Amino acid sequence: MKDIRILVLDDEKVFRKEIKEFLDGEGFTALTAERPSEAFEILQENQIDIMILDLRLPEMDGLQVLEKVKNEYPDIEVIMITGHGDMDAVINAMRLGAVEFFPKPFRLLDMRAAIQRTKRYISLHEQLKEISQTYSLVSKDLIESIGSEIIGNSFGIRQVVDLMGKVAKTDNTSVLITGESGTGKELVARGIHYLSSRKKSYFYAVNCSAIPDSLFESEFFGHKKGAFTGANEDKAGWFEVAHGGTLFLDEVVEMQPAMQSKLLRVLEERKIRRIGSSVDIPIDVRIIAATNQDVNKLIEEGKFRSDLYYRLNSFQIHIPPLRERKEDIPLLLDYYLKHISKKLGKKITSVDPMIEKAMLNYSFPGNVREMRNMIERAIILSDSGRLTMKNFVGLIAPQVESNASGVIGEDIFDLELIEKIVIMKALEKTGYKKSEAAQLLNITRQALDRRIEKYDINL
To answer: CB within 10 Å: which end of the chain, N or C, has fewer?
Structure first.
């Protein structure tokens, strides 16, 4: 588990110094604050796990601070302390979410024990949260081993998850996953593996387009020592490595015809022979293949064997592109904002609503992968806790049309969006002359400049 960071908020200097020295000596990272305003500044800049909070404070009392902390930083656990406490204060503190309550004076060893209890609670909470976050929003059966979510609430993605669950119940059925680049074909393959009875065995992913023809047999089937120049020791091939588990063949159509023939023979006979060996090795592997190309067209052109296609395509799952399931975009945006900002250690407190609208109007040729990379880049570029359109390179703010009378459409209720549209119309009408636009809007030139910066309006 990560190091525990503790914030001590108490207006008594001697107590703050004493408990900080004790906590530092116990291996914790301790920060201190005298006033609530100072504490909230620390919270904005630091990841805090536990807060030790005095009941009597300047600016606001401890219960008010507790309520504000639990509202704004719900993952922080709070230990209350006071030299003037009563039973009502204890009850109110516990109702507001405090995990412990200590009357002053108390023994530092008792405080250490309370922190250790809270530390164990935080550890369990993190584990539960991590497991929960790895579940799909549309299927709670996908477990953490998948590594990421299959996120969406659209009919298309629900159908994908339903098919995953059904084919996972079979043990040997080959699966062909189709879909454009970036839709998450390997994620679906991993999901099938970890939902199946093979989940305790190995899942091995192979990019077929990256394997030179000269190494194909050695990589897939393995070789004996001395079988060829450079074979200095025995080597197991990918079929042996994945024995009992799943072998994922990404971009399987990139294989050369000769290699396709050898793969077909293995799938039919369920045994392999290492290069340089005369011994057949039985294999027990589920094959999941994937491609972003039109397989039927490749078969017609003679670039892919039809018999191998039918062997691989016992069960097919097609993942729709993101542009065909736009209702999933808000869910994906929310998830990746939280997931990536946490990974990068950057706190994002607000997001310009124009970003989601722009994404809904964007075609995402790179699908979910492009969206994830776009959000990660925006978070990296952000110099504050607010993401705006200027952080999203290549994303264009939508132009919302007004009706014939010049009034914003009846279905538009976003005040910030309406204000931005009106400002843009005023600028357009005045030939982008700020002073004239400000007069038209009945605001000062300085107020217009502030709004242009706020809404990231390009002139």
So the answer is: C
